[in-house]
Design goal:
With about 230 residues, the chain is an all-alpha fold. The protein has nine helices and no strands. Helix content is about 80%, strand content about 0%.
Length: about 230
């Protein structure tokens, strides 16, 4: 009986720690998904840079906020869809993580080889309102439903969709995706605004290549971990 009370006391002490560990893991996964989905210099990324350079840091950040909201929309669609086939996901997690890592690798290669400078447009003479900049970025990102493929790969790679998750855990996960996206846009616009006088077309091209390399490294590490039967996520 005494041993039972000791064990019960230990479980009571460590239960909050286990819950905190779960939340930290969810936040980490969500932040990583949000950052990786936002980082490549697609049309909205170039638009964000242009507005930061031509209109100012906060116009660029508001543009990123619009993109983040659109990303959340597609992330919810992806997660909602995958939840319907959770049994299949659970039984084939190895192959899905392998697929996710390969898809991420190809995405990194595509990002590395792409030239975001081609997406540049002639700067507008009008700044427009913050709401206008927000909505246009939202619509530009929303017009590319292929981002769902990227989210499928990321969700599979990080085992983001789980069975029996509490509502609070699910909400935390999706809020973390938005948080990761906003963190990226904040750091990007802050950095670019500080070096705006030295930032040129080559800078955009180099930044996109660096992002492509980082995505490829994450994908390769994921492939190695999956093939070894381990999981760091």
């Amino acid at each position: 009986m005494q041993a039972y009370f000791v064990l019960s006391s230990v479980c009571t002490i460590f239960a909050p720690m286990i819950e905190i560990e779960t939340i930290v893991s969810i936040v980490f996964k969500g932040m990583m998904i949000g950052i990786i989905a936002s980082a490549p210099m697609g049309p909205v990324g170039v638009l964000c840079l242009q507005r930061t350079l031509n209109k100012g840091r906060w116009y660029g950040f508001v543009t990123g906020c619009g993109a983040a909201l659109s990303d959340l929309f597609y992330a919810l669609i992806t997660g909602y869809g995958m939840s319907f086939v959770f049994d299949y996901v659970s039984n084939n997690i190895f192959y899905l993580q392998l697929f996710g890592s390969i898809l991420l690798l190809f995405f990194g290669i595509y990002t590395f080889r792409s030239n975001p400078v081609k997406a540049l447009r002639a700067p507008s003479g009008k700044k427009g309102s913050y709401m206008h900049n927000f909505l246009t970025a939202f619509l530009v990102t929303l017009s590319n439903p292929l981002i769902i493929l990227l989210f499928i790969g990321l969700f599979a790679r990080f085992s983001f969709v789980g069975e029996g998750e509490l509502v609070s855990e699910t909400v935390t996960g999706y809020v973390s995706i938005v948080g990761g996206a906003l963190l990226w846009w904040f750091l990007l616009t802050t950095g670019v605004s500080k070096v705006r006088s030295q930032f040129n077309l080559r800078g955009i091209w180099m930044l996109n290549r660096i992002i492509g390399v980082i995505v490829m490294v994450v994908a390769i590490v994921g492939l190695v971990i999956t093939c070894l039967g381990e999981s760091l996520y």
